[in-house]
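The following block was generated as part of the benchmark described in Methods. Ligand: NAP.
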Amino acid sequence: MKLAFVGGTGPEGLGLAMRMAVAGHEVAIGSRSTERGEEGAQTVREAVAGAVATGGENAAVVGDADVVLLTFPYSGQQATLATLAAALEGKIVCNVAAPLEFQKGIGAVALDVAGGSAAQEAADQLPNSRVVSAFQNLAAERLKQLDHPVEADVLVCGRDAEAKQVVMGLADQIEGVRGLDGGGLSQSRYVEMLTSLLININRRYKTETSIRIVGID
Ligand SMILES: NC(=O)c1ccc[n+]([C@@H]2O[C@H](COP(=O)([O-])OP(=O)(O)OC[C@H]3O[C@@H](n4cnc5c(N)ncnc54)[C@H](OP(=O)(O)O)[C@@H]3O)[C@@H](O)[C@H]2O)c1
């Protein structure tokens, strides 16, 4: 498949793109600047031997993608999706955003999102796209350590069962990761909020944690 990463130049987008390139997918790194997108693609090609990775402006990379991953901060979501809505019509769009802010003395604090979750707000803005959410609990630094398995479950939320299966399949292709059906888009709120908890645990234990769901064989 061809996977495009909107805001793919940050650590999370690059880490996921590297893992997807390892799995044999073609990846396209999107950015607000053509140059940064191309640099991101170069980073993926240098990290993954044989990777087919291109880069460019966000609007340019999503056009022929089978799945588009949104890997930029929640603060830019509304404005970015407004410009991309037409290009994303009919596509599987996977939101990776975990809305949070950092507060002195506390650390990461999950934001109360008006629409329930970043994923629900994305779905409201993209009524003609097949919006799911996933990967919010995978730490970028762990994704980029390609010689180590990630060791995590990825909860995929959405109302489009087929789109969820596609994204669960992508998660399964990351070494050490299992994709699980997290339920409807309203459940994404809990998955997104967990990221703040994990970031604070990571700081305390100086590592990169994730989640495993027990009891499912
Ligand atoms: N980092 C992690 O470990 C981690 C883990 C789980 C989930 N996430 C989620 O994954 C997403 C990406 O995380 P990240 O750490 O890679 O983020 P980031 O480095 O802050 O941002 C990623 C890219 O998004 C673009 N961007 C920044 N602000 C933007 C805006 N206002 N509008 C549009 N594009 C903007 C930038 O690319 P250009 O300047 O090239 O356009 C930037 O390189 C976030 O939503 C985060 O909550 C991150």
